[in-house]
């Protein structure tokens, strides 16, 4: 029995247990037929063709899971070429039969993936909402009244509804991220140039990016790595120069003050605040920053000369078939006629100035964390005000490709209205892999499931390990906590706070007598049922760790401590004999609470 959401780990486990690609294809066909959203696909891969592709895979690679994406079903946004299926860009008069697969599709097929169909989109990838298509408007998998997000609308819904394991989108202004947020998915937006665009109908050729919708960050990164690689046929293709982010404590920039705009959506604002707290709990340092230069760059994409790139992509077709365009799309593209070469250079100059201002903000940051979209709307509301409301979706997305950033969108929970929201992490060019572990940790901490299955547990098999930074992790529980007398023994040699968390519930805490400064003793008592104790996890260099351990006085020592998330770290423990007759403070929840209580007592009573 396959799960609702076809994540890679679950599918691989099913194949290892005897499922075949032919079995999988029959399940996909059944799910397509049962789908309640008629606007998801523009062209489905015919059933017999799907079966033939599964048989061909089994002949080519008979061993289950012998290829990176063996038997994995995926959908393709219909502005990306797939041999044997028409490319329409959501404009029937524009349709053509491609002679071969787009580079990314060819690479995915070679890795064993199976195309199940071409998906709906905002026409010519112009929009962030999913309503600008003659093939209908796909809907949020959580509420049919609401938009799915666009322009990669059908792609997101196929994954969110469990019709495909992953789907390809494209992203110029946020089309690979906004639909991910609206359907409780991960959206992987590579650095521009990392994934080639050969065989992709351009929107703005200089900033277009092929993206991945997936159930988990681990899945999305694995799929993106299959697509990576320089292709000289793409004039903007680049060879990657991976960037490593700090391995100790990430400095994460968040919105502050007047730049916090949610267009009245209190639910999304509350979820963003929860995400900030979640990032803190995972050890990040939160730093408010000035979003203004990023916002001003974002405005250039639709209110500047870059709109002329959209006209350049379809100039011959719109000259003969203007009436075949969606009215809103036509208005946007024809608006480009007001820009000339002078405006194009002036736009580049303005972008350059904004890039310099953004660099000032980056000096104090490692990563940005922004709401993927500040709000959402019903289809009815979007159609009533299509340009203004669409622009709201792009407030925190439009700048990314103009500045050349990598980005990963992850689910961030559900509001009181039952609709999902998400946050996006942005890093410098080619920080794609470096962004992934923390983004994955944030998705897991949100406990929001995958796609329409809100209760699904994220598979451990797809979990991404932190990048090895050569540092040693240590947990402290008492006098070494932040602000306590011995904290300098960690900060002095350059130690970094990773996170504040709690132990598992079977630990007890005591005040050790006759210690200066006062110290606690932590012991584990199997069978004891408590709430866990507040601790801090730090990272130090191996040399500092060695000196640190050497100076620990008896009866304290270093051993393995289990945290409330089930992980184990090296940390302070106490020999059991030392707590005989000692004051127990377990019920206070931690050493910090005990010290605070002691400080409230009159000195004569202490």
UniProtKB/TrEMBL annotation:
EC class name: hydrolase
A Pfam cross-reference name: Amidase
ATP-binding is among the record's keywords: no
Record EC number: 3.5.1.54
Classification via InterPro entries: AH_C, Allophanate_hydrolase, Amidase, Amidase_dom, AS_sf
GO molecular function per UniProt: allophanate hydrolase activity
Residue ranges of domain Amidase in the record: 23-435
Annotated Allophanate hydrolase C-terminal domain residues: 472-596
Keywords from the named record: Hydrolase, Plasmid
Protein name per the record: Allophanate hydrolase
Naturally occurring in which organism (per UniProt): Peteryoungia desertarenae
Lineage: Bacteria, Pseudomonadati, Pseudomonadota, Alphaproteobacteria, Hyphomicrobiales
Gene: atzF
